[in-house]
Design brief:
By secondary structure, this protein is of the alpha/beta class. It contains 29 helices and 20 strands. The strands form 4 sheets. It has an 8-stranded mixed sheet, sandwiched between helices. A 6-stranded mixed sheet has the order 1-2-3-5-7-10, with helices on both faces. The longest helix has 23 residues.
Length: 734
């Protein structure tokens, strides 16, 4: 076998080692599954084998789960078949793993799992089919979990049946619904595993257990088995199921079918025996895999993101390199965040500011974040000290002589940025790249201050840097492929997801997010109640409402952007609509800057609670609409999503973004576009260009230019095209 080795010792205990070649982590591919079916049958029929221990040949991961790329390709092939035939074939393929694992746990021989590394998804499900589980206590990267719901699917290898039978439905729901990944200690406390031990002792301890328990059976295969906490019809268990349905509705607004199907798998499966439960799970898995939400989430949140995380946007002809030293100019909140994530990634950082106190304050931010990690036992003090030592606060620009990359993170002021650029380039080596962290100012204009515009690029971090995963790399007119490649080296090293976009005011993410905020302002001006606007936006799948988002990004920042745009291009360049007048009034008349001064569209109290400002009705041009004339949440949801998606399509039409993968991943990670859709362009593709354009035209007739579709989209509708079909890198996966 290619992926597994089997060694049987003198006691008849077979050690099965999972060790796939040419990959960094073991994953469950079709080839791996076929081999697993084979060795399970072999072990079950071999009388010389008295017991089994399953482990991994990799220290970093026992098994990281299913290879979703193969599943995606299989789904593309099956989609060509008639529905009934497709369902049958898909069910048969998906049930193979369940059949193999069920055969393993009922082979009549004791089976133990020596979990020496990460065990997620299908990896954990393999161990759940073992009679005993022991995990490494000294592997700091050890995580156990069933995170499938986070990419739109459900645990399809028996996880929805075995886990609640082990730890009870309530605890199982807590792990599966939110895709939580837990430590070995937490897993032990919950009862997911039986024991922990140093990694070097795992196999021997597992073998000792196997020898001592020749008649081992799973709990659910024993007489008088009772579900921990009770099943659906048990008085205590019923309370769990009465609570989980409204909890799912509250958390997902019905947008994520995976969570609903997980609930159904558990509810129905716990009323029957394990074999029937496994069939129930597979039926829901089959149904779920044909939902557009699942297909889109797998593509964007797993396949596309994984590719981009590895530098998938690198220009042809450019090879990856190493970023070892970075200089960050500006030790404010953004610069301090960049310095922190860089040091965390092993990069030596010079944190430069106008005076030493400001630079030291920037380093103190990193010290505070590291202190939190130490206090939560996510890191030891020695490691935290080593990371902090990589940051050197200074006022001396000569430190840039050693920098591979310089990141400028000063205020959004063109003149200041130009001054900083010239000062830095006096010290930088010829091969170093200069990156300007700006959220709106066009890079081509900023690069005019550079004597080396080919090595000048925009690096747009989102706030807060240490939490937001997306980074936009903005290509100016003279930015070279070399500069793009070096910026990609940096962003991938600090474990962020990069997308490459062309130069324009607002770039990609901010152009689209302003359409989101703009709809919030437009609805407010039309007399829609603020609470309805905010709640409908969350029902649409957005993480926060548009008014709340404007508070978070700061109203005064929006005001400054308006003023800078007016200064650069004149008052006629300001977009039509309610946004500019409302933001100007919020600052100039009311001094409401957002969360930063506890006054914005919301009022913020010291206890962390917030309430909508009761004076927002002043922005309703013709007064607040009567209750019976307020629009439906469905209408608001549609307007909010359509406006953003149309702007994303416009960015594709203008060449700002050229790859639908980057547009979709960027929309989800950058501003939280409803993840269940798979992203802004997947949202259009799922509706279909014809129907989308038709509805957009109807909205444009009643609600303004935000719904004017670009010619590209109209052309696609006339040809029956999709974005992934027309622009996708892999037409088969479209």
């Amino acid at each position: 076998m290619k992926h597994f080795t089997i060694e049987t010792d003198k006691d008849g205990i077979a050690l099965v080692t999972f060790n796939s070649p040419d990959v960094t982590m073991n994953v469950l591919s079709a080839e791996v599954l076929a081999e697993m079916v084979s060795w399970v049958e072999q072990i079950g029929s071999d009388e010389a084998v008295k017991g089994v221990v399953i482990t991994s040949g990799r220290d970093n991961a026992f098994c990281a789960g299913a290879e979703l790329s193969g599943l995606g390709n299989a789904m593309a092939d099956l989609a060509k078949l008639p529905a009934e035939e497709r369902n049958a074939k898909l069910y048969t393929e998906l049930f193979k793993m369940n059949a193999a694992l069920r055969a393993l746990e009922t082979c009549g021989k004791p089976v133990a799992a020596a979990i020496n590394g990460l065990a997620l998804g299908g990896g954990l499900e393999i161990t759940l089919a073992c009679h005993y589980r022991i995990a490494a206590s000294d592997n700091t990267k050890m995580k156990l979990g069933l995170p499938e719901a986070m990419v739109g699917v459900l645990p399809g290898g028996g996880g929805t049946q075995r886990l609640p039978r082990l730890i009870g439905a309530m605890n199982a729901f807590d792990l599966m619904m939110q895709g939580k990944m837990i430590t070995a200690d937490k897993a032990l406390a919950l009862g997911v595993i039986h024991e922990t031990a140093p990694g070097a002792e795992l196999v021997e301890k597992a073998k000792a257990w196997v020898k001592a328990n020749p008649d081992a059976k799973q709990p659910w295969d024993q007489e008088k088995f009772k579900i921990p906490g009770g099943g659906p019809y048990h008085p205590a268990g019923a309370q769990t199921f009465m609570g989980v349905a409204p909890m799912i509705r509250k958390n997902t607004y019905g947008n994520y079918p995976a969570q609903r199907y997980i609930m159904s798998c558990v509810y129905e499966g716990l009323q029957v025996d394990i074999d029937a439960g496994l069939r129930i799970e597979c039926r829901y898995f089959t149904k779920l895999m044909q939902r557009p939400e699942s297909r889109n989430m797998i593509r964007s949140l797993f396949l596309s993101k994984q590719s981009l995380d590895k530098g998938g946007a690198r220009p042809a002809g450019q090879s990856s390199g190493e970023i070892k030293n970075v200089a960050v100019i500006g030790a404010g909140f953004m610069g301090a965040g960049v310095a922190y994530v860089s040091a965390m990634a092993g990069i030596e950082v010079a944190l430069v500011d106008v005076d030493q106190a400001a630079a030291e304050k920037g380093k103190a931010f990193a010290a505070g974040e590291l202190g939190k990690r130490v206090s939560r036992k996510k890191m030891d003090q020695a490691k935290a000290d080593a990371i902090l030592a990589r940051i050197t606060p200074t006022t001396d620009y000569t430190v840039m002589k050693d920098a591979d990359l310089v990141v400028e993170a000063v205020f959004e002021n063109r003149e200041l940025k130009a001054k900083i650029t010239k000062m830095a380039e006096e010290q930088m080596q010829e091969t170093a790249v200069f990156g300007s962290n700006t959220s709106t100012l066009p890079i081509t204009g900023l690069a005019e201050a550079s004597k080396r515009p080919e090595n000048f690029i925009g690096i747009h971090f989102f706030s807060p840097v240490h939490k937001m995963m997306l980074v936009e790399l903005i290509v100016g007119e003279k930015t070279s492929d070399y500069a793009i490649s070096r910026a990609l080296d940096f962003v991938t090293k600090i474990r962020k997801t990069p997308i490459v976009v062309s130069d324009t005011r607002g770039f990609y993410a901010n152009r689209c997010v302003m359409r989101y905020i703009g709809q919030g302002m437009a609805l407010l001006a039309e007399g829609v109640t603020p609470a309805l606007i905010e709640n409908a936006a969350r029902m649409a799948g957005m993480p926060v409402g548009p008014l709340s988002l404007q508070d978070e990004v700061a109203i005064d920042l929006g005001y400054k952007i308006i003023k800078q745009t007016e200064a650069d291009l004149g008052p006629d360049a300001l977009p039509m609509g309610a946004t500019a007048p409302i933001l100007i009034a919020m600052i100039e008349k009311h001094d409401r800057k957002g969360r930063k001064n506890s006054k914005g569209f919301y009022n913020y109290s010291k206890d962390g609670k917030k309430r909508l400002w009761d004076k927002l009705d002043q922005f309703a041009i013709n007064g607040v609409l009567p209750e019976d004339e307020q629009p439906t949440p469905a209408y608001i949801k549609e307007r909010i999503l359509y406006a953003q998606a149309i702007e994303a399509a416009r960015c594709m039409a203008e060449g700002i973004v050229q790859d639908p993968r980057e547009a979709d991943v960027g929309s989800i990670l950058g501003w939280g576009f409803a993840p269940y859709t798979g992203g802004a362009l997947s949202y259009i593709d799922t509706i279909g260009a014809v129907d989308f354009v038709k509805r957009a035209d109807e909205l444009a007739a009643t609600s303004g230019e935000a719904f004017d579709v670009p010619d590209l989209l109209r052309e696609m509708a006339s040809k029956g095209e999709s974005f992934y079909g027309r622009f996708g890198k892999d037409k088969k996966a479209a």
